[in-house]
Amino acid sequence: MHFVFSCLVALTAATIGSAASQAQAISGTIRNGRTHEPVPFVNLGLPKRNLGTVADEQGRYQLAARPEYATDTVRVSSLGYEPLLLPLRTLLAQPNLELQPQAVELGEVAVAAPGAYRDLRTVGLAKSARGFVVHMTSNQLGTELGALVHLPKRPALLQSLNVVVAKNDAGPLTFRLNLYRLDAWGFPTAAKLLSHDVLLTATPQAGVLTVDLAAEKVVLDEDFLMGLELVQVPASPTPLDLTKQISFGGALELGGQLFVRLASQGQWIKPTVTSNGPLLGRRPAVALYATVKE
User: Fold this and answer.
1) What is the tens place of the pLDDT at every residue in 209-251?
2) Which first-to-last residue range defines the signal peptide (predicted)?
3) Contact indicator for 50, 266 with CB cutoff of 8 Å
């Protein structure tokens, strides 16, 4: 007998529509404070409200926020730039923003001994369980799935990041892969371990999406959260059809750690799971994994 398990990450049109009807639309452009060039795919949101968005490739964004949130803090961030914190009322008055490039600190250079980093290992969930999928249904840019990844041996040299797509009815979607540092309690922080954005596009075909990062020489020496963040949907004059989903492979595992956040700059949560069979202490995990050399 096979039990069918399903985990759904959804932000319904009704919920969004209700919030938007009472909100004020803010539109602006985010630029590099030094060159004044647009900064693509910037995260912008109100962490306290789980409300946010992601700028497009030209740094343009649209954010809907209620006027009574005027004193709330807006957080604006992008890899390579100093995070910007400002009250919502300031953003309402001046929606065009500039981010200042972050000074690059030169740390100690780790030189690998001859023969180091020879053994290839897969970390994270690479094989989906039969009958288990993680659905993402959202028209909210910044919606993100996360998987806790444990490094058995450290340090390790990152080779690739991988996503198992079980089914995609939503059309081409662009995602950003993030690696987050964990806090003392095992929850993701805002600190990222990669030095630049890593983007991939999910086409209608199912299969494994892979980004080769071997040439980057990224050395990892800690456990991390691997996040898959929605940053771009197909341009369309009509709203995204929320009956169409993208589904990722997954499994129920002892110690499984699935994290979700529904908005850019929002709070991470561990979703609850219902099933028609016994869980036996297992928790859901999504099929996001890395390959490393040890």
Assistant:
1) 999 999 999 999 999 999 999 999 887 656 556 557 889 999 8
2) 1-25
3) yes
